Structures are given as C-alpha cells and as structure tokens.
C-alpha cells in the first residue's frame, strides 16, 4: 500500500483524481502549469532503478514524441528518489517533465508517477509541490530523505534538442 501527501500553493487549483491534478491559472486565463500525480504498481525489489527509469520514459512517451525515445536521469526528492524524463513540445505548455519515484523501502510494491506541463522551463509552484511531496508507506510512516540538495528540480534552461 502506498500513498502521498502534497502541499499545494494557494494560487494553484486542485481537482481530486485519480490522478490528482493541480493547475496554476493566471487571472487573464493563461495557464502557467499543470501537475498530475498518480500511483502505479510495480515490484521494485529486483531492479528498482531500471523499473523507475522505464516508467518515467513510458509516462513521457504518452506526453510527447521524442526522437530516439526519451532518456531518464536520476533525481532525488525530499520524500523519495527515482527518475525524470523531459521534452519540449509545441503548444501552450511546451515543457514536459515525467517523474517516476519511490521511497527507498524495498518492501513497497509501487511508486508515484508525476507529470509536469509548464509554459516555461521553471515553474516555481511545481518546484514547491515536488519538494513538499512525501510518500506514505504501508506502515503509515512518511518516507523522507533529509540530505537532499536544495537546487531546482526542474531545469532553468530549456534542454537542447537531441542531435542525430
């Protein structure tokens, strides 16, 4: 059994899911960003890193077509660790980030999938929500990692397109 808790800034609209959806809309109607969180089942005992990297790429593939397929990079959040894949697409929310994370507890049978769609490479509300994310394990304890870097979780510059 797995769950999560998240701190959502007051300016962000929340629509309960599944998946849980958070949206930041300006007064003029423009959307700054969207964040979706859902749970997924997976046996993470044998190849935790491989499964999480594959899941991040799978989630991103539903969001964007990436030449030669998406590539996942390792990330560490205060409540878990896992992988992030990203892409830039055309549209009003061109920056796409897909995370697949799980607590370090190998007894957990799943993880958390997160999709961030934003108008610019850095969306402060998403960074805040990602930093506040805590995963609840079957014992009801919150999985945390206290030694996490305070640097940004989303890139501040647009990723360069892949070359052939």
* Radius of gyration computed on alpha carbons: 15 Å
Order of helices and strands: EEEEHEEEEHEE
Poorly predicted runs are 146-152, 156-160
- Arithmetic mean of pLDDT: 82
Beginning-to-end CA distance, first to last residue = 43 Å
What multimeric state do the chains show?
Answer: single chain
Number of strands: 10
Indicate the proportion of strand residues: 35-45%
**What percent of the residues sit in helical stretches (DSSP H or I)?**
10-25%
- Structural class computed from helices and strand pairing: alpha+beta
- Shape descriptor reads globular
Largest sheet: 7 strands, antiparallel
- Report strand order across the widest sheet: 2-3-4-8-7-6-5
Number of helices: 2
Structure description:
This protein is of the alpha+beta class. It is built from two helices and ten strands; from the N terminus they run ββββαββββαββ. The strands form two sheets. Strands 2-3-4-8-7-6-5 form a seven-stranded antiparallel sheet. Strands 1-9-10 form a three-stranded antiparallel sheet, with no helix packed on it.
Keywords:
3-stranded antiparallel β-sheet, 2 helices, alpha+beta, 164 residues, 10 strands, 7-stranded antiparallel β-sheet
Write the layout of secondary structure elements.
Layout: E1 3-5, E2 12-15, E3 20-25, E4 31-41, H1 48-63, E5 72-77, E6 80-88, E7 95-102, E8 110-118, H2 124-132, E9 134-136, E10 142-143
Antiparallel strand pairs: 1-9, 2-3, 3-4, 4-8, 5-6, 6-7, 7-8, 9-10
